Amino acid sequence: MNKNRHVLSILVENYSGTLSKVAGLFSRRGYNVDTLNVAETQDPNISRITVTVTGDVYILEQITKQLNKLINVIKITDLTKRPSVLRELMLIKIHSNTQTRSELIQIADIFRAKIVDVSPKSVTIEITGDEDKNKGLLELVRPYGIIEMSRTGLTALERG
After folding, report:
1. CATH 3.30.70.260 domain locations along the chain
2. Of the residues 18, 32, 59, 80, which has the fewest C-beta atoms closer than 10 A?
3. How crowded is residue 154: how many other Cβ atoms within 10 Å of its Cβ?
4. Residue range(s) occupied by CATH 3.30.70.1150 in the chain
5. Which CATH class for the 4-82 domain?
6. How many angstroms separate the CA atoms of 11 and 38, rounded?
7. Model-level pTM?
8. Residue-level pLDDT, tens digit, the chain, 160 residues
9. Whose CA is closest to 9, among 136, 159, 158, 119?
């Protein structure tokens, strides 16, 4: 069977313990979560969980069936093959000095990223974009030395 990455958008009731139930379902079944992002929607009573998992069609079907059994789950949408907007936020703290700082600023500008912090020994870049754009920036700044990095994982909405 062919293993592919799937992006699921899961609308859930925004109650204490809902995320724990959803995450517990994945761990109990031995499904690996590549990324997980959760936040309140325009309705404070509903949260959207965006999760990426790797697996074949059978695994995806089992995940969907198990999620639908949870009372707090309202709707599950597989965005993998649907026109969607997928974004990730990354913060990257990079070694920098007076000689390399302008190079890092130029790289950030090329990727439409923002410099959000500068110190004598580092520069922190914020980038929001699709995974390819973010990986491209990461490849260019890696030789300077990454001190720390934080990523949100994908967040996604279906187009239209």
Report:
1. 4-82
2. 32
3. 23
4. 87-153
5. alpha beta
6. 10
7. 0.84
8. 456 889 999 999 998 888 888 888 888 887 888 899 999 999 999 999 999 988 888 888 888 998 998 888 999 999 988 999 999 999 999 999 999 999 999 999 999 999 999 999 999 999 999 989 999 999 999 999 999 999 998 999 999 8
9. 158
